[in-house]
Amino acid sequence: MATGDYFLRFRKEVSDYTEVDEIERELTEALIIICKVWIFAGGLRLLFEKKETTNKKLFCSNAQQVKQELLERQGLRYVSINHSTSCLVIHEYKFAPLEQAIEIAKRYSYDKTLKLLINYYYSSLNDGNKWFVELYKIKEVLAQHFGSERNAMKRLAISNNDWKYFTGYINNNNLRHFDKSLKQNTNKYHHNKIPQQDISRLNLLAKNWVQSYIVMT
What we know:
Helix content is 54%, strand content 8%. The chain is mainly alpha-helical. Strands 1-6 form a two-stranded antiparallel ribbon. It has a two-stranded antiparallel sheet with strand order 2-5. A two-stranded antiparallel sheet has the order 3-4. α1 packs across α3 (98-108) and α4 (112-126) packs antiparallel against α5. The relative contact order is 0.12.
């Protein structure tokens, strides 16, 4: 297993120092979206934040330097705000994910269902206490989008066995309502006791369903 860095650079032309903060916000939002869709574009998990005692951003910005330059030099000037983010690489890519990630990101901006699916999946990867709640929401969103669970299974070519396993496992372990029972301290099951192989299978099923939605709709 090897680790490596994948560097992304975002550029946008600005003409006045007062625009720099807004441009930085826009480019940062674009970076977050790319991080979220990366795994559905042939890439691996791409992190935006490293969770330690506090959240430490894994990107850098030269916005303040840009603003200072524009303060000194009024007038049109081509400048850039650079971001970098790191990811875990465990094998070689068959193709560069960025091009496909950009296409998915464009659709993310107007496809409300896709936006929900990707947000829930990304959240499941980054919230160790509620991953199962977020995964179950993916199933619910698909059923709602297609009008019923049966329609969702048919449109996305999901096998009955996979759908029943996913639903039954989360329901039988009372995971779906864990976030609510956590506050009430009434949950008799603990999600940390779930075997890792079962977590991986649930995660993979949800990921495949989102991927099928992207491809088949």
